[in-house]
């Protein structure tokens, strides 16, 4: 099944996977604590504005809480910025998703995102017909296609504190056209980000 890009979040753990039929030549890189999706060196040139973006960021709130944001586009940055200003996770997700709206491409691709804290998680999506934001206490997925409303998801890495394991688990999940993935964990020591580009 092809679900496109997807986010999975749970308290303490988050992950994001790029699945793509149109732009498979992409990878995640670490740019000083921000994980960015971008083209591989051998990727053909494109002017598509949705190919490159920050997909995972660590955030510190005004109350010194550590949070991670994961998502499939340029909305990741404004969500993080609102959290840094003290917005609750629900409001940061809803405000940024509503402002940027679904992607204006040939498929009206939804924007998806999650906010992960050590003890809480919130997931959201904006699509042509809905804006959905939901606090969750168990691993929950939302994808750009098919699974475009939040629903439970069996993420084994949610029981660990290994961001790399979360990235690898979603990258190797049984959905079509895997490209690359990012993972995030949040605990008392802060946020850990990791990525996996190995689809071999």
SSE series: EEEEEEHHEEEEEHEE
Strand order of the largest sheet: 3-4-5-6-7-8-9
State the low-pLDDT regions, or none: none
What is the number of helical segments per DSSP (H or I, 4+ residues)? 3
**Beta fraction of the residues?**
35-45%
Short characterization:
With 200 residues, the chain is of the alpha+beta class. It contains 3 helices and 13 strands.
Write the layout of secondary structure elements.
Blueprint: E1 6-10, E2 13-19, E3 26-30, E4 34-39, E5 53-60, E6 66-71, H1 76-84, H2 89-100, E7 111-116, E8 121-127, E9 130-136, E10 140-143, E11 151-152, H3 163-171, E12 178-187, E13 190-196
Antiparallel strand pairs: 1-2, 1-10, 2-12, 3-4, 4-5, 5-6, 6-7, 7-8, 8-9, 10-11, 12-13
């Amino acid at each position: 099944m092809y679900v496109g890009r997807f986010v999975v979040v749970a308290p303490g753990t988050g992950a994001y996977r790029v699945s793509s039929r149109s732009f498979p030549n992409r990878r995640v890189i670490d740019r000083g604590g921000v994980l960015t999706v971008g083209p591989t060196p051998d990727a053909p040139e494109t002017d598509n504005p949705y190919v490159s973006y920050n997909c995972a960021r660590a955030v510190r709130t005004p109350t010194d809480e550590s949070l991670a944001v994961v998502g499939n586009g340029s909305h990741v940055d404004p969500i993080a910025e609102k959290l840094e200003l003290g917005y609750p996770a629900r409001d940061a997700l809803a405000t940024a998703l509503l402002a940027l709206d679904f992607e204006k491409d040939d498929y009206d691709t939804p924007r998806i995102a999650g906010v992960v804290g050590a003890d809480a998680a919130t997931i959201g999506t904006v699509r042509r017909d809905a804006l959905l934001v939901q606090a969750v206490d168990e691993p929950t997925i939302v994808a750009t296609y098919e699974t475009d409303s939040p629903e439970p998801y069996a993420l084994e890495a949610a029981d660990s504190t290994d961001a790399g394991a979360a990235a690898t688990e979603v990258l190797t999940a049984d959905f079509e056209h895997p490209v690359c993935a990012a993972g995030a964990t949040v605990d008392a020591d802060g946020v850990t980000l990791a990525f996996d580009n190995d689809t071999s």
